[in-house]
Amino acid sequence: MKRNRLPAYDSPAFAEKFHYNGSDLGARYQPGATSFRLWAPTADSVDLLIFQTGHEPESPRVLPMKRDQRGTWLLSVAGDLRNHYYRYRLVHHGQQEAVEAIDPYAVAVGANGNRAMIVKWEDTHPSGWERDRKPSFTEPTDAIIYEVHVRDFTIHASSGIKHKGGYRGLTERGARGPEGVKTGIDHLRELGVSHVHLLPVADFASVDELGAAKQYNWGYDPKNYNVPEGSYSTDPRDGRTRIHEFKEMVMALHRAGLRVVLDVVYNHTYHAQDSHLNHAVPGYYYRQNADGSFSNGSGCGNETASDRSMVRKMMVDSLLHWAKEYHVDGFRFDLMGLHDLETMKVIRKALDKVDPTILLYGEGWTGGDSPLDWKHRAMKPNVSALKRIAAFSDTMRDAIKGPVGDHHVGGFIQGHAGVEERLQIGIVASTRHPQVRYPKGDVWHGPWAREPGQCVSYNSCHDNHALWDKIMLTTPKRSEAERLRMNKLAAAITLTSQGISFLHAGEEMARTKKGVENSYNHPDSINAIDWRRKVKHAGLFAYYRGLIALRKAHPAFRMIKAADVRKHLAFLPMPAAGMVGYCISGQDVGDTAEWIVVLLNGSDKTQRVDLPESGWRVVVDDQRAGAKPFRRLAGASAEVAPHSALVLIR
Is there a catalytic annotation at residue 621? Predict the structure, then answer.
């Protein structure tokens, strides 16, 4: 879509003249008066529209605003406006018709996010909110992240959860499913993960909040960046309810020993030409092509311009809002490659002042080409220019189970030959290692991470096929028992590799989406987690639980420095193709085990591997996994079953 563009937006002179660095954008409530400040440097006039309700048709009270410093418009309205709603009406230079916009800095909204709400923030606090405490956490490599969609996790009839499909479902303790299995938040505690990664929960556009039971979306279609999504609340009409219930959820997860990560989508908006950002300052918030049309690096019709100073400020202010007001513990950046490196550095620095243990990671790629220079993009090959910000290792993902772009081709776990070296890249968290042969001149699959904490090790996520569905597609003639072995092997690789561990919700019970690859708007019948599978695949769940306990018990799997990985992790010669093995000198990195050996066999045959010396105890094999040894090996060799892992300690 084409539109008029002001090239001055990218000039240093524009930023110098119009960058507003104040902390009072949006509405600031006091019982005697509420002040409103909007950044709209191209506007000739701005009116404030005040409503009694958040969504009902009504004639607003109209109050003209006054032009103030650095492109902002200001108005203080006397009286108590608590729980009123508002919008802005703007006439821009050179435009005949007025446009309306919701406040980009809105922190509360009515139904479907079309009117901002004026709230007294204390009214939104649940009981005990001031005493909320984060679970202890220090190093990024200690994180074991569980990615879940709020609705998916509780909506199924088998969940045993009363408040299905919303924030309150993630507060319930004691929920039980078929045969008494733990579900919901108790399932997460039982599994042992450290962080819950929530798919987008900031207000999104595609779900009608007043008819949410009939609709579904992942939420990668942002509308208001600073407000919880209303379809997950019990009353989307009252802007306070979603805030209150979101805080209840965070507090419940913290009390359960779980930190909370938000999936944030600052790289684009659902609407472009008609977004509230574009109505507030036409053209400013988005990158454009040479002809003035919206660039589309997101693949969703537009991309935001993080490198412009007020877009950068909006992102930083939004993240600080979630971190301070909602006690959030981490952020995952959708299409992080569309954000410039400088913005990501500013974000890390700003959040460090709030809590340096806040976890930051994202997709180190884009959804299409962008006008942003490649060398400035926060893409995977440029992550080494950042500190304490991680990217996903798609190299490892595809090596484990096969390429996501070729549905019927498998990877290491299915016995596909030729991926051993790429699996090694994942095992050392994409850091440089003297025994790994990286593809020559291939920065994408090379050692792009400076430290292990910059690499997210995973085999699947919400995108593309669920792990179990990928295994099904690539093994049409295999038995379920063989497929479960492959699933266990994928988990063993992920949870014994260096870096940050990441799991897709339900993979521990062979979750299926019935073969649907891109389920972003499919119904609950496709997306909901079916807790009956936890009963059916109890052995698989126990295996995941054991692997997590093993990882937590052994810092050798969670090394902080790449130099330690290079020095203390050594790959072993393997007797056959389709195998990878390595040993770690544990005591040198503070482990209770003197030595740890990990043997991975993706082939169809049992393989015998010679070991350095004897005296080994087994903590993981093809059937069991855990932190405590459950048998001893006789002699200085070991048999590794097909499509399985063997982990030994001494």
Answer: no
Which candidate in 238, 303, 334, 564 is catalytic? 334
What is the rounded distance in angstroms from the CA atom of residue 69 to the CA atom of residue 74? 9
Whole-number Cα distances in Å, 393 to 288, 347, 365, 416, 424:
30, 22, 11, 19, 12
* DSSP-derived pairing of the beta strands 195-198 and 259-264: parallel
pTM of the model: 0.97
- Nearest-angstrom CA–CA distance, 578 and 643: 9
- Asked if pLDDT for residue 155 goes beyond 50, the answer is yes
Q: Is the dihedral of CA 64, 69, 70, 76 positive or negative?
A: negative
Spatial distance between the Cα atoms of 313 and 307, rounded to a whole number of angstroms: 10
- The residue count of the chain comes to 650
Q: How far is CA 530 from CA 189, 308, 509, 534, 618, in A?
A: 18, 45, 9, 8, 33
Of residues 363, 398, 469, 508, which has the active-site annotation? 363
Distance of CA 363 to CAs 36, 263, 280, Å?
Answer: 35, 11, 29
Q: What is the mean pLDDT of residues 18-35?
A: 98
pLDDT 10s digits, 227-239? 999 999 999 999 9
Neighbours of 443 (CB within 10 A): 13
Residue of 421, 406, 409 lying closest to 577 (CA atoms):
421
Q: Please write the tens of the pLDDT for every residue from 478-529.
A: 999 999 999 999 999 999 999 999 999 999 999 999 999 999 999 999 999 9
Short-list 502, 467, 505, CA closest to 153: 505
| Residue 221 annotated among the catalytic residues of the structure | no
Q: What's the whole-number mean pLDDT along residues 636-643?
A: 97
